[in-house]
């Protein structure tokens, strides 16, 4: 009974009103590997990254045009007219974000969906950069979802090659000083050069982890190796326009020569050089440790049990970073089932509440409102480090108050539901006596449902 | 009959309204009326009725010491200038202040302090019922119906005597009650209880008597009065006020709060008309605030504070204070005004005098947590 509740809430996204709790929790979790659909119809209906890159270019060009016109007219522009061209991208963002939520509300594989969210946050892009606004959804749908059950190395490469990441962390503009274009630019006196942003975050956030022993020299060498990893369809210069909108290895800006990263020499030329380095980083012991620790924190408690970290680390290393193997080790680990509960993030709590009452289809507006109000706008963590995954970031007085208010609103729209029955279904074997009493003593079915959605059980997973 | 649609009230928690009148009454065969105004958040007694004659006062209060335009009541005490109408009641002999007073509670948690003040218990949560509810049983007839205007009944009114509630129809009635239930549901969960308490306090901070320049407060006073007149009018009314927790920027905020309170009390008196002669209004808070100003132009949770009463039956025009002084060695725990007069003795004495009850019985029934002899001579006989 208890394991059923842990599987539903800690591993999954919370019980759904229409579904009975799993009778064999571990098999239920493992079975989701087969049931997960990386590319459901709701996603294929959305514009992909090549369309979105083009939309961004058009918006940018329109913005420049509008600016020029405004300057020529010498009239005072109204509020930020240059932002208007981005409305289409804002809409695309809203639709993609709603698809993300609605998939999470209806998925037959909530554990795998949770892992998608986990990886999207590990490899965070944030829409507070305009260039990321439209692409953030496509990033998750194209780079994360197809690789969530595969090798970490494949996931890493898909992520670092995605236009959203290349643009968000400035890699697309990074030019090797001795590359063909770098030399031309230098001769013309407008030197272009390296941008280390992505290289540093790859080492610090995506793979090895901060203070794991790499040096500034390693960062610079990786940055040099990655020059040329760019996005076509955006640049004005013909040489940099590429074959079309999307990822493109731009040889004219790649820094020639061998590179040395973490003491290993990489003699490949062109794109293969960066790829070889990333492949090595993907299976590095520090990466295994880093990933194992983050996963353990997500499933085993804010202070992840060392034994759990060790199990996941071992599974990662022995399988060459095979994520399904790591997840299997997680499901098999007793610490994941007995650890202290995690305080639900606003994302987790809202999904759990909506799933509990059987909501299946949020509009883009409802979706945006829900998560903005609760302090976790989708794909907007504000930094490449992503959202924090521990209680102090989310368990605030005002945050709790807002949840309590939202719980009442959700309950009031949910229609007739017997909260007492639903509670036993959502928390099989783990429902506390005070909550049971509060639901039984409520003055109306709606109030009982609101109390359930705001109950201590619901605030944690 | 009271037309419930004529009752105007807003829930502070829901609408963000600053002033949430919650009223309840019991129809009783007595003409005597009681209004209990609770100042939630620990009102600063040292700023409301400033001991300007104490040599340590100015030094401790720093930037808050100068209350320009204050009304000197005697050689020691100066009333806050925002309380001009209350000062007039004092001059008329209808207002009585009790300084350096406190309930038996000695820690500094709002919720626990309010619980002791409202239950009359010795410790927080050692009683489930409130002293106003038990008072109903002491009144002639003993079968008085009590009634709360807001959906939620405050602790002081909870208990065995039946208390029904009226809620204005334009409010989602369930919500305040729902929020109270949430508070009880979280009571056993250390993390959520702490977060919830903090959140509710913060919301209350943003709320208070100052809303609409005090118009909301005056309307509440008028409303309370209208509910207390006529043959079926209430005899016991509780009015809640929030927003007294002035940790920062106290000068302006407290001034607005007190202005609202003054307007509310004046509107109440005006609305009651001749019934004012039979009315006792008690204003009290859970505890006082630190003797010294803090680093943000405010004061922090303290101990001894101020309570006052006014009305036609009050033997007023006086400040009762066994003044402990504000010298460093005189302060309670080196920081707070030392309580020298038990608040329960004041309340028991006043209620007994006002309703003609046996003082000892009133004290033991209403304030079993206190151990003091009821103060006599507070009410005109």
Brief synopsis:
The complex is a heterodimer of chains A (461) and B (381). Helices cover 58% and strands 3% of the residues of chain A.
Please describe what this structure looks like.
The complex is a heterodimer of chains A (461) and B (381). Chain A is mostly helical and 461 residues long. Chain A has helices at residues 2-11, 25-35, 41-44, 49-73, 87-106, 110-122, 130-133, 135-144, 152-161, 163-168, 180-188, 197-206, 216-226, 271-282, 285-300, 306-318, 323-332, 334-338, 346-357, 364-373, 397-412, 419-426, 433-440, 445-453, 456-459; strands spanning 229-232, 246-249, 259-261, 264-266. Chain A contains 25 helices and four strands. The longest helix of chain A is centred in the N-terminal third of the chain and has 25 residues, at 49-73. Chain A starts with a helix and ends with a helix. The model of chain A has no long low-confidence stretch (mean pLDDT 93). Chain B is of the alpha/beta class and 381 residues long. Chain B has one domain (4-95, 121-251, 260-304, 311-340). In chain B, the strands form three sheets. In chain B, strands 1, 5, 8, 9, 10, 11 and 12 form a seven-stranded mixed beta sheet that branches. In chain B, strands 2-4-3 form a three-stranded antiparallel beta sheet. Chain B has a two-stranded parallel ribbon with strand order 6-7. In chain B, a hairpin with a 5-residue loop joins strand 3 (71-72) and strand 4 (78-79). At the A-B interface, helix 21, helix 23 and helix 24 of A face helix 7 and helix 8 of B.
String of helices and strands of chain A: HHHHHHHHHHHHHEEEEHHHHHHHHHHHH
Return Rg of chain B in Å. Answer: 19 Å
What is the count of distinct domains of chain A?
3
Which pair of chains forms the biggest interface, and how many residues does each contribute?
A-B, 24 and 22 residues
Number of helices, counting only DSSP H or I runs of 4 residues or more of chain A? 25
Helix content of chain B: 25-40%
